[in-house]
Amino acid sequence: MGSDLSYLSDLNVFQVGRRAAHSDHIHYRSKEEAESRKSSFYLSLDGKWDLIWSPDPSKREEEFYLDGFSSRRIRKVRVPGHVETQGFGQIQYINTMYPWEGREMLRPPMVSTDNPVSQYIKTFEVPESMKTERLILRFEGVETAFYLYLNGRFVGYSEDSFTPSEFEVTDFVREGENRLCVEVYKRSKASWVEDQDFFRFSGIFRPVYLYALPSCHVDDMWAKTDLRRDEGGDFELRLKLSYSKPDFKGRLAYRLGSLVSGELELDSNLTSWESGTYSIPLVKQYHYKAPNLYDFEISVYDSEGKLLEYIPYRIGFKHIEVENEILMYNYHRLTICGVNRHEWSAKGGRAISLDEMKKDIEIIKGANINSVRTCHYPDRVEWYYLCDEAGILLMSETNMESHGSWQKDGAVEPSWNVPGDNEEWEPMMLDRCISNFETFKNHTSIIFWSVGNESYCGSVIKAMYDYFKSADNTRLVHYEGVFHRPEMKKCVSDVESQMYAPPERIISYFKKEWRKPFLVCEYMHCMGNSLGGFKDYDDLFDEYLGYAGGYIWDYIDQALLKKDEVTGELYLAYGGDNGEKRTDYEFSCNGIVDALRREKPAVQEVRAVYGNRLW
Amino acid sequence: MEIVFGDLSLGVRKGGAEYIFAYNTGGLESLRKGRREFVFRRPDLAFWRATTDNDRGCGFSARSSVWMGADRFFKVENYSVTADGTLLRWDELIAPANNSLIDSPLRKASSVSIRFAYSTVTKPEAEVFVTYSLSEEGSGLRVDYEYRGTEGLPGLPVCGLRFTLPFPVDSFDWEGLSGETYPDRMWGAQEGVFHHEGAEICPYVMPQEYGMHMRTRRLTMHVRKDSLSVSAVTDEGFNFSLLPNSPHELENAWHNIELPAYRRSYLTIAAAVRGVGGIDSWGSDVGERWQIDAAGTYRTSFVIE
User: Fold this and answer.
1) pTM assigned to the model
2) A288, A329, A355, A577: which one has the fewest Cβ atoms less than 10 Å from its Cβ?
3) Which domains does chain A have, with CATH numbers?
4) Active-site annotation holder among A140, A454, A480, A605
C-alpha cells in the first residue's frame, strides 16, 4: 500500500509511466478556437485543491489516494503555488550548500529524512466534449518528485521540477467525479542536482491540465528552419502522430505563411513523418531587432474531411554558428547583451503569473537587453512564446545545478561531485536534456541549449552535451563548468564560457588561448549597489572579435513580501528572515529590478551600455 | 554685513540670513533664514558610507573600518578668521581676546571667512580643512573643503562633508546627471534638470550606501515655502547625496522598515566618491581607478544659499 519510496533515491527510476517529452504546441478544435486562444481540448485544473501536509514521510496518510478516504487533516491550498508560501513548512533560501547542511550528513543519492510530503487531492469531472477521447494529465512543474494516483490507482511517478510531466489517464477516468491524488516530496535524489542558488520550495507550482487527444493527434512536431547565407531559408517538418484506433484514415495539411504548404495522407500505421527540406528563395530573417515570425499551421482531418485538430505556431528563420572563433547570428557577429532570469514573484515565489512575465518582457526590452539565460532550469512554457514575439534570444538551460557537491565556500573540491563521471546518473540527466530540447525546439528565440549550471564536469556532462549536439544542428550548446576541467574543453561546450571573469582575464584569454568565442555566462553581479565598471566589458567588443558578450547576474531579486511581526508593515524578506538555517541571507537579491519589479538605479547604465551595441 | 565676535562663536548677519560658526563644536552651527533653521548639528566630516554588498564581499569595510570611527568623531585642531584681509588666530578670537574687538571696524567687514583645521581620529592622522566664506558681493556661503591624506591609512569609503538638516525635505531638484551615479557607473546618465518628490528611499533590499549624484551643477531642496540650494564653483561640479538616514543608521538596519522615521535630512557633499564595483560580490574590489587612496588630497568647493 502507498507509494514506493525507493523511487526517491533509485537513480534508475526518475519516471514511471510518463509520456515522452514533446513539443509544446497547443491543438484546437478549429481555427476560430485558436484565434480565441482557448482550446476546448484543455481543462484547467488550477484552483483550490485539498492538501494534507506532513513534515516527513512517516506522518503522511498512506491511503489518501483511495476512494472514501477522509481526514480532518485536510486543508486548502492554491494550485499552482508552493506549499511553503501558503503556510506549510519552512521557507528556506540557500545558495551552494545543500539545504540539509549542518543537520544531516548525506552523500548522493541519499535522501534527506527532513522531507515534507504534500498530498494533494482534487476532484474533477471530464467535460462532455472530452469524454470519448484519449485523456492526458499534464503537470507543468512539481518540485521535486511526485507520485500520481487517479481514482484509487497508481498512474505514475516523475521528477525534474521544471519540465512538464504527462500521463495518459484514458483508462483511469470514470463517469462522474474523478479523484486525482498527487503525493509530492520536497526531497529526492533530484535535490542533488537541483541545488540552484534559490529558495527551496516544494509543491505543484505550475499549471495542471487535463487535455484530450482527438482520434488522430500530432504528438510532436518540429518545424525546423534555417536562414541561409543567401537570405533564403530551409524548412523541414518532422511529425510524430498517434491514433485512438488502429483503422484511422485521414489527411494532414500544413502551411508556413505563403512560403510552404503540403499535405499527407494519414493512416494509423504512420506514426512518424519527415517532409524533407524545402528550399525557400527569400525569407524575412528573425532578429532581436525585428522578430519576424511566420504563421505556421497544421490541420488534421478525418476521412470525411472533418477537422480534428488545428495547430498554430509562429516560426522564424535564423542562423547561429561559430565561424572563425566568432559567434555569428544570421551571418553577422552577435553581441550578446544578456541577463540571467530566475522566475520570481514577491508573492508567489517561483509560481509567477502571465502578467509578471509580460512585465519582464517590457523591462528587458526597455533595458536594451537582447538575450536571456533561463537560469538554471526551463521556464514556464509561456515565456518562450513571449520571447519569440518580443525578439529576446534565449539560452534555454537544462535543470541542473550541483555546486554544493564540489564547490565549498568558493573552493573547488570535487571529491564526490555529481553527476560527474558516475554513469548511473546519466539516464536521469539525459532525460532532463531531452525534456528541454523536445519541449522547446520550435522556439525561434532559442540560440543556445545549455547543459545546466555549475555542476563541475565529467562524462555525464559530456553525454548531455553530445545529446544536444546530435539532437539539434541548428543551435549551439553551452556549458560553463568545464572551465574547472580544461582538458575536457575540446569535447564540451561550443563557446568558452566563464563566469565573473574580470576584463583582464578575458583579455588574457584572447592573447593566449583564443579557440572559441568567449561568453561570460554570468557577470556584473548586481547585488545591492553594484554594476560599476560595466563599460569596461563593453570596450572588449571593440578590441576582440571573439568576445561574444555576457549575461548580467541577474534580472530580479529573490525576496518575498512578508508582514513584519512588530509593526505589521509589509516588507521584502530575504534569506534568514523566516528563521531558516542554514541560509545565505541577502545573497538571494542580485537583480537589476527588485522583487516587486521596480527598476534599480543600475538599469540606466544597462540601458546605455547595452544600447551602445544594438546596431 | 554684521559680524559678531562671540565668546565661542563667530556670527554673521547678511541680508535676511544669519550664520553662526561655533569654535567649540568646529563648524557651521546655525544657518537661519527668517524663522527657518537649516542646521541641526554642525557638519560631520564624512568618511563612512554604509557598507555595500560589494564592499562587504571584498572585505573593504573590514579593512577600512577605522573610517567608521573617523566619521563619528574628529578633533578640531584650530581655527582662524580672516575679515577684510585681517587674520585673527584662534587665540585672538576667544574670550577675553575678543573684548578688544567690540569697537573693531571688522564688525562691519565686507568679507569674512573662518577656517577650521581638523585631524582625523586615525593613526596616523589625516588633516581636513574647511573654510566658510561670506562677502557683501557673494551670493551665499561658500564652503571650501580639503582633505590632506597621509600614507599608512586604508582606502576611504567617501571623503567630504555631511550636513544634517533638521527637517525632512518635501522635494529637491538638481541640475546634473540623471539617476544614481558613482564614478564607475555614470556612463549611462543623461545630463539635465531633475526633480524628486520627498526623500530618496533606499532602492536596495538590505540598506546600504545609495543615492549619490555625481557632477552636479546645482541642488535645491524645498521645505514648505523655504528652499536651500547648493551651487557648484568649479567645472567639475560637486557630488551629493540627500538621504533620510545617516550612514550609521543604514549600516545598522537589515531592512528598510527598520530605519528610523524620516525626521532629518543628511546632505553629503563628497570631494571623492568610491566606485561601487560590480565584477562580483565575494572578492573583487572596486576598480583601482575608482578607489579613494587615503594618501591623496581631495578638495571640493560649493556655495550654499
Assistant:
1) 0.97
2) A355
3) 5-213 (2.60.120.260), 216-315 (2.60.40.10), 320-556+591-611 (3.20.20.80), 558-587 (no CATH)
4) A454
